[in-house]
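ARCHIVE CARD
Drawer: 12
Card no.: 0347
Subject: one protein chain, sequence and derived structure
Cross-reference: see card 0346
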Amino acid sequence: MDNDVKTEEWKKTGERWLKGEIEIEEFNGLKLNKKQIEFINAKERFCLVSGGFASGKTTAFLVKLILLCLFFPGNRILLGRKTRQEIERVTLPDFFDVCPQGIYEHKVGPGIIKFFNGSEIIFFGLDALQSGSGQDIKKAEQAIKSLNLGAVFIDQLEEIEQRIFEALDGRLRRNVGFQQMNFTTNPANYWAYDYFKANPRKNTRLIETSMMDNKEFLSDEFIQSQLDKPKIYVLRYVYGEWSPDSLIESGVFAEEYIKEQAFHVKKPLREIDGAKIFHEPVQHDYQIGIDPSDGSVDPCNITVVDKETGEVVATYSGLVPIAAQADRAVQMALMYSVKRKPLMIPECTGVGQAFIENIKKKYDRIYEREVFNQRDKRTTKKLGFYTNYATKTQLVENMKNLFQKRFPKIRDGATVEEIKTFIYSDEVRNRGAGAQKGYHDDRVMGMMLAFWNLEAPSAREQNWIRDLTRQKKKGVIKYQYK
């Protein structure tokens, strides 16, 4: 079948879809769930699908993106995310899984996907419009003004400011018979909650979905692993609950926890190349959290935690290049490798990827995260902790749980001071929580990563460990770890 015939057939199907004569229920061998079908067939000007992990919202988002290219020849659609790198690294692999082969050409350099009927998808990193120098923002705004679009698709709207949303709405003017903006979001504290749910604006549509809406396509083991997460995580990211509880604007950690940690602060025993040592290495198991930086504006942080006692035994913070951060992390890891090598948990978002590439050449015990592939229904493993709204919520809830059990002992006074200014925030760059303006949160992030997935011993076990340690110091007993 030649391209002209295919173009005409898809165009006729699009006309019938637009009139409501047909409804899309399957695509390219994919059987769609009810919420996916609802989103794909929604025709309001602004459509948002909000939901939990593995709820199928990304698949529905991509299917609709492809259909609007096929239904309306000569369409031009902007595919946006915070950065173009995230589009290419995270969104495009799923696109290639969903889209039929042989109907498009991927032009890597300019970031364009061109279809046989003249429709095209252009990639746009929207961070250019909301960060950087004033001159860079003006250039990006000028690039947006020159666009003549038939549709806009933004993955993870929670990372985009409202003014960008409004600017793109003004570019929706292409004469293809149908204009629409479509988005995905995780339940989060930001402007779209009011725009789409609390006080829905005219011509908007919100589809809320849950992992359970997609359970037919998920393994029981994967679902159970998600249900075992902290309660607030399960509500938001398994069941997809988007409620006023998500809109708290206050300190992330309770004042009582901060006061308790102030009691544990002490001066370092010594310093080694800028690293503060609060407790010398013993035959315990350690874990290291790392918040990398570009070495110019925000400092990096390395925090070492004793997994058995919950004590922060060493910290490092400084404005140094990526290679130096990796060297310092290895130095501290080897220092605390008395029992075995500590697990390093570096953040891999943004500049963290460069840190990962550097550190994996020098150290072989690095945290691996699981990444679920919707189409293949399987998980793969990648190095580092990827931070977004959902995973930062997991970090915070894990830390709150440990604070509640009185397990952490934060020896570093600067970290305790940062905890005081770590707040819930609707600023895009903070992904739900971050430092107040004028402050940093690198120490808090390093701390939370160091405590990630740790199990606090029971109160009885903690008392036993404390008593044993006291007796050893007094020479009452002698013991040795095997």
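Annotation on reverse: Confidence is low (pLDDT under 50) at residues 476-482. Residues 3-239 form a domain with the Rossmann fold fold (CATH 3.40.50.300).
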